[in-house]
Structures are given as C-alpha cells and as structure tokens.
Amino acid sequence: MNVQEYISSGILEQYVLNGLSKQERLEVKQNAARYPEIRAELDALEDALMQYAQANAIPLRAGQSESILGKIDALQSDLTTSSLTSKKEKTTYSILPILMGVALAILGGFAVYLNQQNQKTQAALEQTQQALAQQQATCDSLSSRITFLEEKLAVLTNPDNATTIMRQENSPVYAAIHRNAADEIAYLDVSQLPPPPAGKQYQLWFIDTSAPESMGVFDLADAFIEVDYVAAATIFAISLEDEGGSAVPTDIRYLGEV
Prior knowledge:
Elements: H1 3-8, H2 11-16, H3 22-34, H4 36-56, H5 64-79, H6 95-156, E1 161-167, E2 174-180, E3 185-189, E4 200-207, E5 213-218, E6 224-227, E7 235-242, E8 252-257
Antiparallel strand pairs: 1-2, 2-3, 3-6, 4-5, 4-7, 7-8
Helix pairs in contact: 3-4, 4-6
C-alpha cells in the first residue's frame, strides 16, 4: 500500500467530516491501526478541526464539555483497538461533524451580528457627523458675526472718524458713512435700510464740485461695508436703481452732506 498516496487521496478528510460509507469508515480505521503515518495524519486532521471549533464555539453549559470530551476519548480508543475485524463494529457517531455544524452556525450568527452592529455604528456615525456639521456652521456664523461687530465697534468708537448721515426726508430711516482721513479708509453702514424691491438694487454716490460719481452697487447681506475713501466728497447719496446699477442716479433716496 502506498501510504502517501492514500493520505493525499482525501479519504481521511472525508472520514473526519463523516462523509464515508460504513465500509469505507471501517477501512480507514483498519489502515489507521496498521500504518502509523495514517494514524498521525488522521489525528492531526481531527485536532485541527477540534481547535477550529473550540476557537469559534460559544461557552458550553456546565458538564457539557466533559460529555463531549468523553465522546472524543471513546472515538480515539476505538481507533487504537487492534482486533477491529474480530469484533462486531459498534455504531459510533463522531462528535467532530457536530462540532463543525456548531462552528458554522456560530460563524453565521456572528456574521449577522457584526453586520447589524456595523449598520448601527454607521448610522450613529452619520448622525454624529451631521450634528457636528450643524454645530460647525453655527460656530462659523457666530464667529463671523462677532468679527463684524468688533470691526463695527472699532469704527464707531474711533474718535478720528468723521461720520456722514444720509437720511430720507421725513423718515427716521438712514444710512451712514464713516471716514478716517489719517488711514484713508471708509465704511458704509446700511443696517437701517429696508430691503429693496424685487429687481432693484441700492447704489452709492459721492458728489464733489462736478456731477455725481458712482461708488458701486451693494447688497444688504453685509450691513457694514468697506468702500473707497474719497477725500474730495462734499455729499454722499444712495439711490435705488435697477439691478446692476446706473450710470447716473435716477432715484435718490438717502442724502447727506459731509
């Protein structure tokens, strides 16, 4: 008998997995008792499967481990019996296929559990990220607001600034322009202006000794706007124009002398 070919044939794996007929199992037992190499390979296969099952098994109930080990010992004792052919074979159910089934069931259940946990973790992570994004947006908005108020306060409290109020006749609504001649900077405060009608836009002008000069259109999204410093200006005005502005003021709403 070529022992190595017999070992490589896969019959020992089939034996361990309980995939042989009664006659084939008897033949494996006889060969294992006759050839030490077959016996060693069979023991190694059973040990490997046992270690896999133990590594993935759920904790056994009290006394259950002793019962299983007793069955394994009985199986190993059966393999070492030298007079197998002279005795009637006893019906033996290998514990290894049972353990294999238990291990597969545990692995399947554990995979389902991990998938469920992963889905829960992913959902919690997405909720946390959304909450953090909302908080970050709030912090950014507050930071921008604080910066705006600090800049406005610095301008309003600077004693070197000159302020020109642009009013609408018979109305408490106004806009203001704050200028600093030393630093040559100017800020337009439009926090009191009402929103323009649809399709309209406010435009800032200055007048010196000639015709009005445009300083550009502006929106009310920024209530405190840095504008060009014009030293020669004697009058500042705000008109209401079509979106995009006009070359000349057509509807002056707010006017103030320097």
